Request: fold
Amino acid sequence: MQIVKNPANPLILNNRVIVFDHIEVMGQGVLPSGEMHLVIRDLKSILEKEVPIPVELLASGQTGPLQKLFIKYGLYTLAVKKPYKVREELLRVMQEVRLKPLIISEGFQDVTLNGIAYKVLTKNGVCYPVDNSVSASEFHLSGRAAEKIVTQKNMEDFLGEFSVYLEELDRFLVILIAAIAAYFFCAFDVSRLTFLLVGKSSHGKSTIQRAVSFLVEGRNSIRDFNATIIGMLEFCAAQGSKPIFLEDAHKAGESIMDLIMESGNGSGRFRSNYGKNQEDEKLKKMTGVAVVSSEMSLDGIAKRNRLILDRGVNGRSIEIPETDHGMFENLCGFETGAKLSERLDALAPDYASVIGDAAISEIASHFTKHKEQWIKRKNTIRKKIILAAELEDNLDGVDARVLNGLVFCAFIGRQISNAGLLPVSRNRIYEAFGRVFKERINSCASDMDLLKSQRSMRTIKSVQAMLIKNKSKFSSKKQEPNDNSKKVVGIMKNSKKTERFCI
Reply:
C-alpha cells in the first residue's frame, strides 16, 4: 500500500491511497440501496472509471463474484491476480486508512465523518456542506453525484430567453420553482408535496416536465410510471432529495397513492433484507419531490382501480389541471400550443442546469441566512398567496397542509428572484402560486358539490325503492290526506300520476 501525500493539504483525508501500483482507493460509503461500497479506480485505464465494490465481496468464499466484477469493469490486472491477495490488500486499506466518506447521489443528505453526521447538498459535481465547520474537500463524490454537465449558455442568456415564458405561464413557473425547492424540503424540515399535472394527451404536460428537468437537473430525467408499488417506492427512495419526474400516472393505480403518502410523510417501506443485520437502517426513506403527469385526476384513477381516495392523499398533493390551451395559460405569440411546446423543447437543452446550479448554489452557500429568512417570512408569504387566491384564511387541515408546501416553494422562488436568478418579481411568484391554489380549492368544492348531489340522488332512489317494495304497508292517496293522523312519508311522481305514501 502506498500513500501519496498532497503537499497542498497533508491531511490524511486528502492523501491518495494506491495499491498494486496503479489501483487508487477513492473512498467508502453507503449507497442509496443501503449497501456499503468501496470505490476504486485503475490509473492505467484510459477511462479511469470509478468502480464500486460491495464490501460483502471481500469476504472469504466470494472469489468468483469478485472476479466477475473486476472483469465487468475492465480491471483485468486485478482479475488475474490471486484473489486472496486483492481481498487482503483492500481490507487492510479499510482497516488502516481513514478514507473519505463517499457521496454517490445528488441532493440533500446526511454523511458521517469521524462519527459526526454532517448535512451536505450535492448538485452537478459540486458538494455544498450546510455546516460551515466541514470542508467540501473532505468528501468524495462518485457516480451521479460526480457527473458534471457543462453548457455554453449562462445566466444572462437564460434571463433574456425565458423571461416571456416565466412571466406569462403560471404552470411553467410553479413547476420550475417547485423542482428547485425539491432539493431543500428536507433541509428546511418542510413536509413534501407531490405536484400532479392533469390533462389530455399531447397537451403540454410532458413538455413542462422535460423543460424543467433540463433547466434544473441538466438532463431529461422523466421516467414512465410503469412499475409495481415496491419497484416505484424503491426507485424514488434511491433518487435522494431532488425532483423526481414521472409521467402517465393514470396507468399506476395504487402506486401513485402510495407514492404520494410515502413522499409526503418522508417515510418509506421496511428494507427487504431487514433482520439480517439489526444495525441496518430499517427504512428506505423517501426524500424527493415527485412532479407527475397524468391523463386522469386522482379521483378518476381511484375509481378506475376501485380504490378509496383518502383525504391524506389530497393533503399531500396538488392537482394542476389543464387550461383552454392545455398546460399553457396563453400561447405567448405562437399559433398553437403544439408550436409553443416545440419551442420550449428546443430551448431547454441549451440551458441545461443553468438555473438549477445557480439557484442551489445561492441557497446552499448561504443556508443559515436563508433558513432564518424562512422563519421570518413564511407567514407573510402565506398571506400574499391567500390574497392572490382571493380566499379567506379559514382553511381546513388538508388545504392548510397543501398551502404550506406551496408557501415554501414560493419562498425559494422569492429568494432566488431577489438574487437576480429569475426574470420575474416576487409578487409575480405569489400570484402564480395563488392562482394554482385557487384552482385547487374551486376544484375540491366542485367535487364536493357533485359528491353531495350524487349522495342525495342515491338516498332518494333508496327511499323510492323501499316505498315500492313495502307499498302494501302504506295507504296510497291521490290527494293530500285530510286526516292529520296520517303523516306523509314519501311522494313519488311520474308522467301519469302522483302518489303520496302515508302512515
